[in-house]
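Assemble and predict.
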Amino acid sequence: MTTTTQQITLAARPAGLPDDSTWSLETVELPELADGQFLVEVDHISLDPAMRGWLNDVRSYVPPVQIGEVMRAGATGTVVASRHREFAVGDHVTGTFGVTEYAVSDGAGVTHIDLDLAPAPTWLGALGMPGLTAYFGLMDIGELKDGDTVVISAAAGAVGSVAGQIAKARGCRVIGIAGGPEKTDWLRQIGFDEAIDYKSENVLKRLREVAPKGIDVYFDNVGGDILDAALANLRRGARIVICGAISQYNEETLPPGPSRYMSLLVFRARMQGFLVFDFLDRYPEGLEAIGEMIRSGRLVARETVASGGVAAFGEALLKLFRGENTGKLVLKVR
Amino acid sequence: MTTTTQQITLAARPAGLPDDSTWSLETVELPELADGQFLVEVDHISLDPAMRGWLNDVRSYVPPVQIGEVMRAGATGTVVASRHREFAVGDHVTGTFGVTEYAVSDGAGVTHIDLDLAPAPTWLGALGMPGLTAYFGLMDIGELKDGDTVVISAAAGAVGSVAGQIAKARGCRVIGIAGGPEKTDWLRQIGFDEAIDYKSENVLKRLREVAPKGIDVYFDNVGGDILDAALANLRRGARIVICGAISQYNEETLPPGPSRYMSLLVFRARMQGFLVFDFLDRYPEGLEAIGEMIRSGRLVARETVASGGVAAFGEALLKLFRGENTGKLVLKVR
């Protein structure tokens, strides 16, 4: 018995924003399961800012996706056939299955998920890589301390919204930066002390007002002018967590860096990058902490679910770069 | 008995490079010594890149020098009159006496120096703030480890030349970046493994050649393109020590920051600023370490001594920004 699946492969490397010519929708027959393999029916696919970087043919922390290769993506699904002893038919799982309706897996990097704790999309958001990124970024790279003033950019996004709620739960004063009143209203609802709308407010000036003693931890997901505004408002000993730079990922030339980086000297501050994968052996700790916050109602996990199946992947990815999502953006497969 | 002294005061805040209109040469009578004061006859005045920042009327780690105020400067000298119990006539001292021939001091921030260990100019260089800056920057901010590949910019300068020799003594591979063959030759003489001439070589490409496995510690004194070249050649877990940015101090508008700062994420690296003053209580440790290297011949302390007395201060300072000094630049007062 063979399985037919639709998949999205990389057709051409984009310059700037990906468009229709970037992707190819293919229908393929999956091979029969070998011993030690299982078949996953994918239900939700993760859309991540980092995907843009994987399309460039440059040396980075993971190899680029190759032309003709299925687009790399995290996903959730259900095991529908198995010749693997640890994964049985009916099991709910998450893994890097790619932009596909069905995937054959040998179990590498695949974990079970508990749909009683949270629905599948949350396992791609607060209980997935974004949540773990928020947790280790804040706790380990940001060295979060009680009472810190914490500023988070892209605060209504998958990582930012979890980071803000973790900081809040640890007794910090939390300021979120996001685009538009809908997002800033939501940030206030979920407990952020202040929310700055970068589309209508002067971020540098507003930060000075809402954090008059300066920022202890700045969790940066965007780069660009907002990073500079934070640099101008540091407190002595500040930690800047470099998690992403979504404002820059689609630039065709290297944009100017943070002009105010010499604030690091004036404020004896540091700026440090990280990747969640480096904390692999501590994922259980992170999931336990976030899971406990969800169970106790101290963390609101929100997802924006795009529809249209794998064929809609290209359009769904653009929503991310247009900032159309609140919380984690996922694509529903069927 | 009063003392007459020549001094340099700040006449006007410069835009860009300081010039003649920046400074005023004044002759003043110093007040008679009060109880607890002493009079210092200054012999050498320190010229520091940081001086440029003190001329701007902006919030920073020290207050700006005010118009009409004696220009702030570290200096060495001899006590020639005293009503202070810890400083006797004939004592050799160093302190922030300013650009002046004579200074009245109450002893705050003044320490004795040992001219048997090294001549006075060295107490403004390797045994002064520059040496301590090199020591704490490398050891504490750079977290120097045996076998690290260490890159130092402005490597033939007061801080860089000491930093390189400390790293070398700790068993590191040390690469210096400096301007011109005279400086790069000197760096090789004092033990640097490689020296790159940024005036005639492509620093980014040369770093890739001489540090093929990447940089563990980059000690930055210059900023600008050289910082970007280092960012492009990091090793995983790299530490960038932000000590200065001499290439940018005379810019009238904020220059673009390091475009390649997202290398911090790819390489899980950090960039951290510091000020030597934060290590005040550990100066004895730093001086002991550097002094021991001088005594045992493992550290070559070099100074460029400008002449002309305090009247030549303005011209001497420009030598620094033109890169005309090798090692520490000091002004001989008489």
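Chain B has a mean pLDDT of 96.
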